[in-house]
Amino acid sequence: MKNFEVNTPKLSIVFLNYNRIRETRYTLAQLSRLFEGRDDVEVIAVDNGSTDGTREFLQTQADWARVLSLPSNLGIAGYNEGFKQAKGDYLLVLDDDSHPVDNITLDRIIQCLDTRPDVGVVACRIESLKGEPIYSWHLPQNDAPGTSMAFVGCGFAIRRTLFEEIGWYPTDLFIYQNEIEVAIRVMRSQYKIYYDPNCRVVHRESPSGRTNWRRVYYETRNTIWLIRRYFPFPMAAYLIGSRLFFGLIHALQSLEFRGYYRAVLDALHTPIEPQVLSPLLRQQLITFWRQNSVWHQLLARF
Fold first, then answer.
1. 16 CB-near residues (< 8 Å, 6+ apart)
2. Has this prediction a pTM greater than 0.85?
């Protein structure tokens, strides 16, 4: 196994780990397979204050992967510590339960960002272990290569300098909707997000460590924060009302009323500096609009 210290990487693979040691082991096994024989890739594993043995296991891999151990769970801000340590021109961002399918994926990411100066982010195709596509509203529904509104956080690549310029992941969100915030910042920086279905990342979608209250609280709060920041009145009022309704339905389904109540208070009372998007950029976010519109969701269902 190569020592990471001798690498001069083109691509830095960064993934965040939190109390899912089984998934961490699997991901590192897959990455080590790809890592062999390459001198243009480095792996950075960040532990987000795990208490299940993940931190200790990662230290046993420190001969070939760069390991960062954080004292507590910082949410998505934990990623930023890994990004800051990266040496590659480009960052491939994974979850602890996701991994690239093959070296073709890594090669295509590097080639795209090397040859397309207009592209800031490469959005990967997200698959199951069986190779079946995992559909997400963040990506083109026709599974064809081209410009995308956003990307999925468990599998995308971004120019390191661009990510640094736009402030890395937004630390105030903690979890959920960080992809949309970054996508908006990328578009405002005049870069494109390019979806390449041949850049393939497996997402094993482990439910471990994912709690209902977090989804109710952070998805409701963070989405309303984005709406308040980027959309003008009366559009914002309609979308906020829609999002409150969706959050309430989710709270009813999961019996997480306290989290919903807190989300509403924090979503509406936290000061937000408006940065209203131009009509052109709002048009590029039409899928986000439809995803958070009661009317469009009812039409999609019926």
1. 46, 48, 76, 78, 79, 82, 95, 96
2. yes
